[in-house]
Amino acid sequence: MEIRIPNLSEGVESGTVVAILVAVGDAIEKDQTILELETDKAVAPIPASVAGKVSKVLIKEGDQVQVGQAVFEVEASDSDATSATQNTPQAAAPTTQAPVQAQAAPVANFQAPTGTPPAASPTVRKMARELGIDLTRVRGTENGGRISTPDLRDYIQQIQQLAFAAPAQTAPAAQAAAPSKPKVSIDFSQWGTVRKEALTSLRKTIGDHLVDSWTSIPHVTQFDEADVTDLLALRKSIQKDKGLKATVTAFIIKAVVKALKEVPIFNASLDEVTREVVYKEYCHIGIAVDTDAGLIVPVLRDVDQKSLSVVSDELGALAQKTRDRKVAVEDLKGGSFTISNLGGIGGTHFTPIINKPELAILALGKAVEKPVARNGKVVIRTMLPVGVSYDHRIIDGADGARFIRAIVDSIEGLKAKDLGL
Ligand code: CAO
To answer: Which residue, by CA, sits nearest to atom 25 of ligand 1?
Structure first.
């Protein structure tokens, strides 16, 4: 009996084997973690779909493996024989999402991206990968919603029809697109010794996400400075009185919530299909975390409803989990606004790139003491560099200025009563 790579998560088709946790001869339990796979989102533990004894290991560390690929051979106990086959990706549950509300001609084979990668044969998956097609958008017509080659062909034909049906929209975009130059590999060793390192899946994903955001969103970045002298004094007194070791980021999260409530467009997203602005009643804050593997942005949920002490505990735990690459894919989704704080490291202002599909992001530099003018006198205050990048398709400069003032006012005016302590 073979154990195969199960469905991972939306849009994730493959990964790199980073650790094999069992060897030939090992007895394994059903659901026991048998290997760890680095996908472009996180390191995912892969559970055994069957209990038994490992008879063959079909992969080695560093291998790139696909969803559905056999990775172990196992002598399974009888009771597990059926469940193992049921757990193969081909037998995945049918998807139930409603079709996307397209304004153009009705498109039978479109559907909204599902949470689960759909069942499809390796050939279909390969074709989709080569053509850059997101299979979660294709409706499968075979048993259990499995996608067949004709389903994929129909989907492509319908995309073509849509493209030709809207020449007025597509033509200017096509004209604007400059012919892309073929990429060339440069031999840097002709100028001296070099060392090569392949990009990890995560690094490729970070790059692709940033290029998508940077090239599809006209960014504007607005800068200011917040006087955090009182905030740091408040932090000190809370540390002393309550023993609470909340960091600067935890305080800023609480201050940001107030500003987001005042200027709610900064907590919204653009639906690029329906061309609607989606205002969110919730306040889920993405936190840029610097990890050894690269930038990862997990999400802290409902921070508007949590006290400083809960936000502080959750922030610490989430940052640690992210650095250990144990963060779940779900933890990376659904943010409404992101904070990127480089102040723990250093530097002043920088221009952050929006974490699409959000509309804005806050950058924080290092708070330092500096001379500032107050009531005609020069005094020493601790000033925090702040910057906000926003999507200029949706947010005008005046709102950008209003929002950064709201952030600065909220930071400078933060009181113990705002912290739910
Ligand atoms: N100014 C001055 N001091 C700051 C500060 C700032 N802007 N931000 C944090 N600090 C302080 C903290 O209060 C803490 O002080 P104490 O030791 O007295 O408690 C110290 O610096 C270290 O902070 P920290 O980084 O450990 O904790 P944090 O909760 O403030 O930040 C996190 C958490 C996850 C935001 C941070 O660790 C991190 O990873 N930052 C990098 C984000 C990043 O890479 N952004 C770039 C994205 S674009 O490539």
So the answer is: 344
Ligand 1: which atom is nearest the Cα of residue 289? 39
Instruction: Please tell me the residue having the least CA distance from ligand 1 atom 38.
Output: 289
pTM for this predicted structure: 0.69
Binding site membership of 298 for ligand 1 (Cβ less than 6 Å):
no
Task: State yes or no: is 392 an active-site residue.
Answer: yes
pLDDT tens for the chain, 421 residues long, are 899 998 877 667 888 888 888 999 989 988 888 988 887 767 778 888 889 999 999 998 888 899 889 999 999 876 554 444 333 333 333 222 222 224 333 333 444 444 456 788 778 888 887 787 878 778 787 777 788 888 887 787 777 766 655 544 444 544 555 667 889 999 999 999 999 999 998 999 999 999 999 999 999 999 999 999 999 999 999 999 999 989 999 999 999 999 999 999 999 999 999 999 999 999 999 999 999 999 999 999 999 999 999 999 999 999 999 999 999 999 999 999 999 999 999 999 999 999 999 999 999 999 999 999 999 999 999 999 999 999 999 999 999 999 999 999 999 999 999 998 8
**CB of 342 closer than 6 A to ligand 1?**
yes
Angle at 257 (CA atoms; ends 385, 247), nearest 5 degrees: 55
